[in-house]
Write a structure and sequence with these properties.
Blueprint (H helix, E strand, L loop, with lengths): L1 E3 L6 E3 L6 E8 L10 E8 L11 E9 L3 E5 L3 E5 L6 E4 L4 E5 L4 E9 L3 E9 L2 E4 L4 E8 L1 E4 L2 E4 L3 E3 L11 E4 L4 E9 L1
Antiparallel strand pairs: 1-16, 2-3, 3-4, 4-10, 5-8, 5-10, 6-7, 6-9, 11-18, 12-17, 13-16, 13-18, 14-15, 14-17
Length: 189
């Protein structure tokens, strides 16, 4: 089982160079921004910089920390990403302008190549004990702590689960009362 600690993730510039993101996982391993099937990352948004565009990519964003921001998609549609742990889906080719609701924010991002994979982010609140489905590729501890196959994981940790049928793939999640995890599910298109 691979547990990734937030503090160990390398901060890199956004595709457009106007912000910072930390890649948690990408499939296939070593894929670039041009050829990934799916990608999970955590971004810091501290200015009203526009998002990078990703034609052909379905995106899901989830506010983790901060007051959030309002997204204006293609100059027309607005979405207030101000409620923590509430996933919002949008097309990667959309031009997204941002107006901060307060200070800096941190958000969780899933990107999936349209037509090749489908993805979603499920928000799971404790207390819960569950067996993870085979299509769960990653889980992120968004609040408090979790136990994955009995191993303690703290807030900010992510557990990579996409080994498929491998005996090493984690299968059991325990969330105590007050804990929250984001569960990333990927399936064939």
């Amino acid at each position: 089982m691979t547990v990734l600690r937030f503090g160990d993730l390398k901060a890199v510039p956004w595709k457009n160079g106007l912000g910072v993101t930390r890649e948690i996982a990408v499939e296939p391993a070593g894929a670039t921004m041009e050829d990934f099937l799916w990608r999970v990352s955590i971004a810091d948004v501290d200015t009203a910089s526009p998002f990078s565009t990703f034609p052909g990519i379905d995106r899901t964003i989830v506010l983790l920390e901060g007051d959030g921001f309002t997204m204006t998609l293609d100059g027309e549609r607005e979405h207030a990403l101000t409620v923590p742990l509430s996933p919002f889906d949008f097309p990667g080719e959309a031009r997204v302008d941002v107006t901060l609701a307060g200070g800096a924010t941190r958000d969780f991002n899933l990107m999936v190549r349209r037509g090749m994979r489908r993805g979603r982010v499920d928000v799971v609140h404790g207390p819960v004990a569950a067996t993870l489905a085979k299509d769960v590729v990653l889980l992120h501890v968004a609040h408090s702590e979790a136990y994955v196959d009995g191993q303690a994981c703290r807030q900010g940790d992510s557990v990579v689960c996409w080994q498929g049928d491998s005996a090493e793939a984690p299968r059991h999640l325990d969330l105590p009362y007050g804990a929250t995890a984001l569960v990333v599910v990927i399936s064939e298109a």
